[in-house]
């Protein structure tokens, strides 16, 4: 008999009159707002303009949602296109089913379009929003709690997740709360990226690459614990292979980029002033002022010597 466990909500949707308020959707929306808020603070600190992160997010977020849904539908196509299934459900994103790999890939395409329109270097923008994306994932994972999905193997640990639903093949019981493990891991990833960025002044996309590598390291072992249906390759779940491959790509980028382009961008947004850009401009201005004073002093000394020579 379990003495303690994490209860699941009896339902994942509330109704405000005829309007459904879905927990999964709320988690996604809150995560987006947190990512934009933190990304904006970091962008301003790097010398960018207020509001630029939100403007580019207008492109990145819709692309990311479409990409995440496409990845899920493609990799779990039997849920929507096999016999007895309704393909219309593939469009019901509020019922859950977003693949982070597709969300990041297509979201990056949307961000690239937004950056290109603003004349902003994409790697600098990615570095600014990286920890915010990790926090958005941490919040978004609680949407799986509302839907009673993506849990792990059976367990009687005090923090076990109680599943009460028997829909779609679920078996009521207590399981590892893999949604919680990933949520906590993503918070740790955000903290790591913020610390490393301050400590090593990561630039040219390296903060984003660190986020990707750190997330993949956690996703691999958390994915291994899950018991929901998934495609397997050589005995491993598809997402485990994806995590390992993307991890290696991210680490490779970190190493190669640090050698080819050390340091970080001096200017992240043309025509903007603030943060690091202001500090550089102020330093440059002080240097020019000192040079002008030194030249003026030398001119005064030359004039004094010339006057003395005439008197003699």
TrEMBL record:
The source organism is Streptomyces coeruleorubidus
Q: Which pathway features in its UniProt record?
A: Protein modification; lipoprotein biosynthesis (diacylglyceryl transfer)
HAMAP family from the entry?
Lgt (MF_01147)
Q: Where does a 1,2-diacyl-sn-glycero-3-phospho-(1'-sn-glycerol) bind?
A: 141
GO BP of this protein: lipoprotein biosynthetic process
Residue ranges under compositional bias (Acidic residues)? 292-304
Annotated region (Disordered), positions in chain: 261-312
Cellular component aspect of the GO annotation: plasma membrane
- The domain of life is Bacteria
Location, primary (coarse class): membrane
Q: What is the uppermost EC class here?
A: transferase
EC number(s) recorded for this UniProt protein: 2.5.1.145
> Which family is this sequence assigned to?
Belongs to the Lgt family.
This molecule's function is given as: Catalyzes the transfer of the diacylglyceryl group from phosphatidylglycerol to the sulfhydryl group of the N-terminal cysteine of a prolipoprotein, the first step in the formation of mature lipoproteins.
Topology relative to the membrane, per the entry? Answer: Multi-pass membrane protein
Q: What is this protein called?
A: Phosphatidylglycerol--prolipoprotein diacylglyceryl transferase
Q: Which GO terms describe its molecular function?
A: phosphatidylglycerol-prolipoprotein diacylglyceryl transferase activity
Q: Where in the cell is it found?
A: Cell membrane
């Amino acid at each position: 008999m379990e003495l303690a466990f994490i209860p699941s909500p009896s339902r994942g949707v509330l109704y405000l009159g005829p309007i459904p308020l879905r927990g999964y959707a709320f988690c996604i929306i809150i995560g987006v707002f947190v990512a934009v808020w933190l990304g904006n603070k970091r962008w301003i600190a790097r010398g960018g303009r207020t509001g630029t992160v939100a403007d580019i997010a207008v492109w990145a977020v819709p692309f990311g949602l479409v990409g995440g849904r496409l990845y899920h539908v493609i990799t779990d196509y039997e849920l929507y296109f096999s016999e007895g299934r309704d393909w219309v459900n593939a469009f019901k994103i509020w019922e859950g089913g977003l693949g982070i790999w597709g969300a990041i890939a297509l979201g990056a395409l949307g961000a690239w379009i937004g950056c290109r329109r603003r004349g902003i270097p994409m790697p600098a923008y990615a570095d600014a929003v990286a920890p915010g994306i990790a926090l958005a994932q941490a919040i978004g994972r609680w949407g799986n709690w509302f839907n009673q999905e993506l849990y792990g193997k059976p367990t009687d640990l005090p923090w076990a997740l109680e599943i009460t639903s028997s829909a779609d093949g679920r078996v009521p019981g207590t399981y590892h709360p893999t949604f919680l493990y990933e949520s906590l891991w993503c918070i740790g990833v955000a903290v790591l990226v913020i610390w490393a960025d301050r400590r090593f002044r990561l630039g040219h996309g390296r903060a984003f690459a660190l986020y990707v590598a750190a997330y993949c390291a956690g996703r691999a072992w958390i994915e291994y614990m899950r018991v929901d249906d998934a495609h397997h390759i050589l005995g491993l779940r598809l997402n485990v292979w994806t995590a390992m491959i993307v991890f290696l790509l991210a680490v490779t980028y970190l190493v190669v980029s640090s050698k080819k382009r050390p340091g970080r961008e001096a200017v992240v947004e043309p025509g903007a002033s603030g943060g690091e850009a202001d500090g550089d401009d102020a330093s440059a201005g002080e240097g020019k002022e000192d040079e002008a004073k030194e030249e003026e002093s030398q001119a005064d000394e030359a004039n004094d010597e010339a006057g003395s020579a005439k008197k003699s």
